[in-house]
Amino acid sequence: MKALYDLLITGGEVVLPEYRARLDVAVQGEKIAALASTGKLGKTAQRVFNAKGLYIFPGAIDPHTHIQIRISEPPKPGFAVSSVAAAYGGTTCLIDFAFVGENEEMKEALDRRCAQAEGSFAVDYSFHTRFAAATLQQVGKAGTAVAYGAPSFGEISLDERQGVPADNAFLLALFQEVAGSKGIAGIHAEDNSLIKYFTDNLLGAGKRELKYFSASRPNIAEEEAVKRTIFLAEKTGAALYFFHLSSREALTAVAKARKKGRPVYTETCPHYLAFNDSAYSQEFEKAIQFIRFPPIRSAADQAALWRGVRDGTVDCIGTDHVTAFLAEKKALSEGKAFNEMPGGMGQVENRLNFMFSEGVAKGRISVNRLVEVVSTNAARIFGLYPQKGTIAPGSDADLVLFDPKTNRQIRSADLHMGLDYTIFEGWNFTGSVVATLSRGKVIIEDGKYVGSLNDGKFLKRKINPEILKRYAL
How far is 67 from 123, CA to CA, in rounded Å? Predict the structure, then answer.
């Protein structure tokens, strides 16, 4: 008998935000062809994959990575290494950034980034457009990016680390343009003037050590930036996405905006859920691992973020993945004050496993909620749903087979990100990825990468109007 399907996954438990059920999943070409109760689809497939005892998740989506391709010393792992590591971690889509130079056309910047990515991605990918400088001359370019298929903008920075910080005039003009062109504005919410005030006071008092880093960028700097940005967006009708929120006050501001019907979406990251600001009081070689912007905050903030993940205030878990070497960070930090030390950490491989181990296995969130925050919500917000983020006939066959019963200790040497450290060194994670499928092709199996760097393709996105006019998750 001729095989009806290319692949049949049988005996596993499909998990989606709205349900979990024992279903067989049939794959034909790049798409999901059918779902049915176990045994109902027969075994008429070229390959039958026994998933008994495993969860079947939609492929995870990381909406926030910074994969560097520039040559430095040591060389930074690029798209190829980072995307393979993502696949090992069950992520089948990455959304990175395309920087638009001050005098550069939007299409030129996106064409350049896509050319850099072609043939270098193990999984599918897209780009947020990011302005090199917050100048009014760049605002009018937003509509071009939306038409290109890159309708999200960020991280629009309110502090000066990325050059000229975004002031109110820039934000208002950009929000007007983004709202009119049907895009979404992504914000790095830290107020530059407050950071400068606290930093100058600390340095003026001779407090240069890394243990003062968190105090230099306190909760009020994020809270003010979030509230100001929401206020300006309300005046224009623009939808907002806050990257890497870290404080309880910021989450409260987001929740209040949503009660008013505003389309305001949020993300936090594993490092904010796993650690608190005591990390900066460790010996230097450990503390230097944890520099992030915003900083890791108090235990009370950490608890509030977990509540936000559980109750829906936090929509997505992004990694803010940076290809950072510990040796390089230490060398660049010797003799420097806390505000001159480099940040960044590699996380793209550990996100799904961390959220399962610390969230689901420890009873903080349901496995259904896990799927929402690592996959489905990012697909909905950024214009990929239902192509991605679900398991349904006609959707891309991006699938993760996950064993919830295994236990393993995390070691940097066992990971695939090409870096010399992980903040989770020595942690014991519950659960593990058994196999990852990208558009119907098995790319991770039995702990090995069996795909090709030609597998990933650029995804043109168009955001659902409902997402843009009101909070719609």
Answer: 14
**Helix extents (H) in 237-298:** 248-259, 270-274, 284-287
- Kindly report the pTM of this predicted structure: 0.96
The string over 11-49, giving b where at least 16 C-beta atoms fall within 10 Å of a residue's C-beta and e elsewhere, is bbbbbbbeebeebbbbbbebbbbbbeeeeebeeebeebb
The number of beta carbons lying within 10 Å of the beta carbon of residue 340 is: 10
Sketch out the chain's domains with CATH numbers.
5-57+393-404+430-449 (2.30.40.10), 59-389 (3.20.20.140)
d(CA 143, CA 135): 16
Place of tokens 């909760």: 219
Tokens representing residue 292 in the block:
């992030």
Which residues pair with residue 156 across a beta bridge? 187
In 3D, which of 376, 217, 371, 187 has the Cα closest to residue 301? 217
Closest CA relative to residue 372, chosen from 35, 110, 15, 6: 15
Residue 2, pLDDT score: 63
Least Cα distance to 352 among 95, 123, 17, 87 occurs for 87
Summarised one tens digit per residue, pLDDT across range 366-416 is: 999 999 999 999 999 999 999 999 999 999 999 999 999 999 999 999 999
> How far apart, in whole angstroms, are the C-alpha atoms of residue 441 and residue 49?
12
Residue 206 predicted with pLDDT over 50: yes
Closest CA to 279 of 269, 289, 270: 289
Q: What is the mean pLDDT of residues 127-155?
A: 85
Report which secondary-structure segment, H or E, holds 266: strand 264-268
Q: What is the residue-averaged pLDDT of the chain?
A: 94
> Which amino acid would we find at residue 2?
K
Q: What crossing angle do the helices spanning 192-204 and 219-236 adopt, rounded to 10°?
A: 170
52-83 burial, b for 16+ CB within 10 Å, e for fewer?
Answer: eebbbbbbbbbbbbbbbbeeeeeebbbbbbbb
